[in-house]
């Protein structure tokens, strides 16, 4: 049996966890550079706001209606997501992390306890132990588990497919709300008279394959209780990219170098976590294409290493040379980006026949020590000097010249000692 567990209004719930004054209050979370609303709780939706609203257009209305606004705090969200999945793992032998706020739990047929008891316990402990409300859907397939989860949000937080009138529920469930059926497929199916989940459940498989491809066939099988969608296996990335738009325009090279160095730190860390090395590195530099101020410019350059590398100084040195080659003075740049490509396992990288890489063990030890320090004391606690070319570099290596705009950022309550809440006497 499959459990689908989804954290309700996850980003907003994380922000509210350490702010009891926000209980039952509307909350909105903004995208990078405080651009648009990307997450909001039910209270905020009831106040008339929607995901995708442009912040500066609704800023005054948000304030007028008492909405608490936050910049995205992914450090906090990721840590609380990890804690939720540790809880899931304590109750289930097989957990698939689907996204930052969703997971599938696979329970074997011989589970001695009642599935409802497990679901109720999971729902209660997530709210009590972690402080994040979740909904739990239980069904024989992932599609039906997702469907049950949606129903659970309005039925006490727990919904089991075995306890429902299946035909009636499917008949009242719009086909467009089914997992994997987007707007285009909804319009296509409507032309063939398929408007509800029940209609799709009874749709002939040969027509589903013809109109919806093999993915549609699997969805039809899943609606019939047949487990047909494989779990997502994340064996690693084909490439790793790191970039953020600047809060304002940047023109001088040292500030761009500082930003690129910080992004390279982040990209190499992610690559090393997957135990990979890269064969190629690309750097992109661009102005703001939507700005009417100044001329537009966009360029990129790439380089290939003699053999795959995971050594930060080598990768960053190459990236900085590429940046110099594409940089042109006088432009108002809005973004610099690094992309690591040609990834392969670091311990299986092909070496040259007549060249002994005696420094690799030393380089690996240096990077392991750097990763260990940053894991213990925080992101970029130990970094290369080029990250600090600009004097006003902050605690995370960001400079006022190019830092991402986050005017409403909350503290990192669970991962930074200085941000631990203090109780007043």
Topology overview:
Elements: E1 2-7, H1 10-17, E2 27-30, E3 37-40, H2 42-46, H3 55-64, E4 68-71, H4 74-91, E5 95-99, E6 102-106, H5 115-130, E7 134-139, H6 142-152, E8 158-160, H7 166-171, H8 183-191, H9 197-201, H10 205-223, E9 240-250, H11 253-273, E10 276-287, E11 298-309, H12 312-326, E12 333-341, E13 344-345, H13 360-377
Parallel strand pairs: 2-4, 7-8
Antiparallel strand pairs: 1-6, 1-7, 2-3, 5-6, 9-12, 10-11, 10-12, 10-13
Helix pairs in contact: 4-5, 11-12
Give the SSE order as H and E letters. EHEEHHEHEEHEHEHHHHEHEEHEEH
Helix content: 25-40%
Count of structural domains: 3
- What is the gyration radius calculated from CA atoms? 25 Å
* CATH C-level of the largest domain: Alpha Beta
CATH superfamily of the largest domain: DNA polymerase, Y-family, little finger domain
User: What is the fold-level CATH name, i.e. the topology of the largest domain?
Assistant: Dna Ligase, domain 1
Backbone structural class: alpha+beta
User: Care to count the β-strands?
Assistant: 13
Strand order across the biggest sheet? 5-6-1-7-8
Which stretches of 5+ consecutive residues score pLDDT under 50?
Answer: none
Choose one word for the global shape: globular
User: What can be said about the biggest beta sheet?
Assistant: 5 strands, mixed
Task: Give the mean pLDDT.
Answer: 86
CATH architecture of the largest domain: 2-Layer Sandwich
